Amino acid sequence: MLYRTLLVLLLTYSAACQKDLTTQKGSKGSDVVEAVLDRIRSRCIFRDDRLFMRRLAIVSSEDGNDPNYDKDTSGGIWKIPRSSFESTLISHKLASFKDNILQTFGIHWNAITYESLDIPLLSGLATHMMIENIGKDIKADSTEQADYWALHWKIGADVKEFTSKINALQKPRCSKPVDLVFAMDESGSVGSYNFERMKQFLSNLTEELAIGYNGFKVGAVKFNSRGTEVFQLDTYQTKSDIQASIVFNLKDEKFRLSITFEEQNVGS
């Protein structure tokens, strides 16, 4: 008999006012990093970083939790090199991105100083600006991202510094199989403003899962006045099929994320 864990991921709209830590000087932690990335990605200004930004925050400063970060916050959570940041101020090919940042975030990019990058949102934007200035698409594979990092970020560094931290982060903490169900709120109050944000979040999450009989099985439901099945736990066996179904079958996105766990014994 195989015992599986059932994990329900509930995504719904919340209008509750919360303090925006992404713009608070010195804010740090995984919640802050993910909030910055969600906020930037939802605007669809920059190219897809293929989770490089999330990994880079871990490698550079452990989301700001590295003890050394409190002693030196230069470059912010993503530890942007000063010379690379300054190049974003003078680069002509970034003109359209500067316009978009002004229109979307109300930030005059050329007025930003290197010392202000300890504000998480500015550090995140600076990282994206640096990526656009480099002008090369980022591969999804973490090993190739390590090469990219050593070539453009921490020049000359051993790629093992990157891969070892990422591998430690991704190392399974238990071998128990998990049934994961996405439960999406599609009621009228949710709206469609952040549609791409939800799809990107779910797609990125799926990309990180070990899909399979002994790993994760993924299903999805959507609800408003009543619930509707999108796909069952055994409908798809590959990440690409799950991601495709998310793109074509789910809608509405600005969400509050809550996770509830329930242990369920499933005989097989």
UniProtKB/TrEMBL annotation:
InterPro entries cross-referenced by the UniProt entry: ECM_Assembly_Org, VWF_A, vWFA_dom_sf
Entries under CDD domains matching the protein: vWFA_subfamily_ECM
Top-level division of the source organism's lineage: Eukaryota
Domain VWFA: 179-246
Gene3D superfamilies linked: von Willebrand factor, type A domain
Keywords: Signal
SUPFAM superfamilies, sorted: vWA-like
Extent of the signal sequence: 1-17
Record-linked Pfam families: VWA
Name recorded for this polypeptide: VWFA domain-containing protein
Lineage per the UniProt record: Eukaryota, Metazoa, Spiralia, Lophotrochozoa, Mollusca
